[in-house]
Amino acid sequence: MNDFAKKAAYLRGLMEGMKLDPSNPEHKLIAGIIDVLGDLSDVAEELLLAVDDLDESTEELGDSVDEIIERIEDIESELDYFDGFDDDYDDDDDEIHIGCPKCGTAIEIDDITDPSDIVCQKCGERIDLTADDEGYEEIDGKSDDEDDE
Ligand SMILES: [Zn+2]
Fold first, then answer.
1. Ligand 1 centroid distance, CA of 16 (Å)
2. Against a cut of 0.90, is the pTM above it?
3. What is the tens place of the pLDDT at every residue in 41-84?
């Protein structure tokens, strides 16, 4: 019981000891005030309990968030670890080349190339890799250049 509830209960005890006369308007007023105080102290009690629960929930939520952040950091460092491998891989093999069907020049295909609209840097030929019946083959750019010369 909180202090407010204790005081309200004490006042009610005093009132009951006074043997109030219900037909006396002043006594009626006092009894009414004591009643309201009792109701208010009940509400205060519930609110205090709710705040305690909320505090507990907030603390648990904070712990969960901490765990999630920790896990995300773990995943990020794992990703960084694999990114290291990716970088090595990219240096050697990320770029692929196809031969231009018109002039034979090697055309670089990378992540940002639109496979349905590739333009030959040399002759301006437009190539659509998504039209799969054309039969373009992936070639090695460097050796293809050497073959041409
Ligand atoms: Zn070309």
1. 106
2. no
3. 999 999 999 999 999 999 999 999 999 999 999 999 888 877 76
Tell me the three state secondary structure of residue 9: helix
pLDDT computed for residue 94 by the predictor: 62
Question: 99: burial class by Cβ within 10 Å (0-12, 13-18, 19+)?
Answer: buried
Domain of residue 133 covers: 96-148
Higher pLDDT, 22 or 33: 33
- Number of domains within the chain: 2
Going from the Cα of 126 to the center of ligand 1, the distance in angstroms, rounded, reads 8
Q: Which of 92, 108, 131 is the endpoint of a domain?
A: 92
Phi, psi of 108 (to 5 degrees): -80, 135
State the Cα–Cα distance between residues 3 and 92, nearest whole angstrom: 76
Q: Examine the domain organization and report whether 137 and 85 are in the same domain.
A: no
